[in-house]
Amino acid sequence: MIDRDQAIEIMENLNEQAHNDAWDEWTEAERLEDEGEEEAAEHQRDCASEIQMDFFSDHFVNLDKPTRQAIARLALEDEDFYENYWEPWNPLDPESEAEE
Q1: 27-77 confidence digits (pLDDT tens)
Q2: Quick one: which of 36, 78, 81, 91 has the fewest CB in 10 Å?
């Protein structure tokens, strides 16, 4: 069984991997902002965020099933964990992941 601290570490590592995977998109947003193209930069940040979330879910589903289930159950039971580590990064439904 995974404890809360281990789950947080896993989620943070997955988010860091996903951020690295979406690095080019984030860099493009910075470039646009540096050039004063605020609207385009904001759009690019939205795109980068979506791409990062897609990468995150890809990495999450590659975890072994017991780990995924334990993290999903924690998200269902712990509102703080859900709000800070699941909801902003993981587009998957924690109920579905907990039941698989």
Answers
A1: 999 999 999 999 999 999 999 999 999 999 999 999 999 999 999 999 999
A2: 36
